[in-house]
Amino acid sequence: MSRINQPDPSSPPPCPHVRGARDDCSNQIKLTNVSLVRLKKGKKRFEIACYKNKVLEWRSGIETDLDEVLQIPNVFLNVSKGQTAPSADLAKAFGKDKPLNDIILEILNKGELQVGEKERSAQLDRVHNEVISIVASKLVDPRTKRVYTTGMIEKALDMLSSQAHQQQGDKKNSEAGSGAGTPATGDDAEAKPRTKEHNWTGVVTTKSAKSQALEAMKALIAHQPIPVTRARMRLRITCSTNVLKQAVKAPKGADTEGEQKASGTVKDKILSYVEQVETQDVMGSEWEVVGFVEPGAFKGLSDFVGNETKGQGRVEVLDMAVTHED
């Protein structure tokens, strides 16, 4: 059975017909130290009462005992008011024959976790610090190739966030003054093509730190509040020597006659992806080069080696992000 909080000794005695979770024969269940999970379905909002921190452990697979997650195995319309969900509402929203336990699991797995203000603030701080740490490890000064401190990255992102919010405010004021909702037509529509901008408005708790760090890096690179570029990858490329001198064919349609013309050798093409060669050597029947490659070029290089050498070449990542620190 799931654990149920004991009533406060100073509160009125509970209804004699129901165990301690219910109070004053009012069919209300009072719970404390609770985290809520809410799911809107069938035009109604349903809630379950869980122990703090246990929901995330359940969703990550750390906790597998449902009794350790739920404060009480029931579904509510409003936990804070102790209003349990009528069977008719559950049947209408989830299906007549769906067992209560399955309904609880659906809410637990798909619902939105509600947390208190202090917990929300702490969670936001954790995600914020993780995003800053990831960004600081992936970006460098393009001139020195040295990393920035987390404080400098944080200030740069704060600057972008302030600018983005300012632009949003200016846009709203402009739309209010000129008549919002009026679509651009004619020359105006052509003069203002829609382009995707990498704007940064700050960290949120609804997205992973990794995905937000990627958004932050794109915004910093696009707007350059401080000079930044992605740290280069350090790769080892190996290839059979018997394919190095093979000519690489240009794509069809590369010239006016539609003929394929040679555009260098396989070796030339591989080296064109490498921004800086660290070592280059031939060992027996294999050629090997170790060097630095921009992250954006990695996929093209990997695809080329895989396709052009027909399995006689490979690309290994030695370092995902090469940086220099003072």
From TrEMBL:
Residues 33-120 form the Ribosome maturation protein SDO1/SBDS N-terminal domain. It is found in: Cytoplasm; Nucleus. Residues 260-320 form the Ribosome maturation protein SDO1/SBDS C-terminal domain. Residues 189-199 have a biased composition (Basic and acidic residues). Residues 1-22, 161-206 are annotated as: Disordered. Associates with the 60S ribosomal subunit. This is Uncharacterized protein. It comes from Daldinia eschscholtzii. The lineage of its organism: Eukaryota, Fungi, Dikarya, Ascomycota, Pezizomycotina.
